[in-house]
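ingest -> validate -> predict -> emit
validate: passed (alphabet ok, no gaps, 295 aa)
predict: started
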Amino acid sequence: MSHLRHGAEGSFEPVLVMVMLVFALVYLRGWVSVRSNCLGRTQAWHACSFLVGLLLIWIAVASPLSALDHELLTVHMLKHLLLMTVAPPLIWLGEPVRAWSQGLPRFGRRARGVAFCWPVIIRIGKALAWPEVCWLAAAATLVGWHIPAVFTLAMHSAGWHFVEQSSFLLTGLLFWWPVIQPWPSVLRPGLSMILYLFFATLPCDILSAFLVFCDRVVYPAYLSSSHLFGFTALEDQQCAAALMWTCVTFVYLVAGAILAMRLLSPQKPLGTKLVPAVLHVDAAPPNVHQRLETF
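emit:
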């Protein structure tokens, strides 16, 4: 059944690759425009960060490695970590909103400007930016998809597996937004963000500890797998849990250390003085849609 699921899922891969290529091309077009017009301080590492983030997403969803997720829980867990923990901060560090604002064709910029003026879009955007919403969405996604019954459903259905991977990526992006605060954000991360990261480790720690110390295989789908590299199903489960525990702790610790250094630094965060006030919804003038068309 898992081989059939993977074969059906392969039909999504060309579409995903094309979407990522379009995102990359639009980003690079906008990044070159920003650099040439001196609209803001953007450096080469921004582009590298964004492209590496896209590469990690491709590895998780469309590379030959992704084909092994129905054989090893460790590979399955690695995909989750790439989509939720590693790729999203790299994407936001690339300042994609700034680049896409310049990279879209004129009709795309016009449509974006009109959409950003809709009250419904403004309210939804503000609600999704609340750290509480971001934290709860990420925690619910992590815990929900690791419930054995839900996990099995995603393993045996290409459609649900696509939904699972998409939810990990989207909630990962949502989770990291208040931490990275990319353009057009201008707020300086506070002490609350360090606590935000600390409490975010708790669901991962609890889930990891349960999988590591459990004396039975929690996900029956891996009982009949080929046991690559000589792993038994139980050893595979313990390795996957240890990987999640280590990776999440390390990434969050690094992010917390960087935030602490920024808090102790007297300098303002990069781009604070360079962000056009026109893109701040709660301070936007009545003719904001006309000015957004100029991007």
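Confidence is low (pLDDT under 50) at residues 1-5, 269-295.
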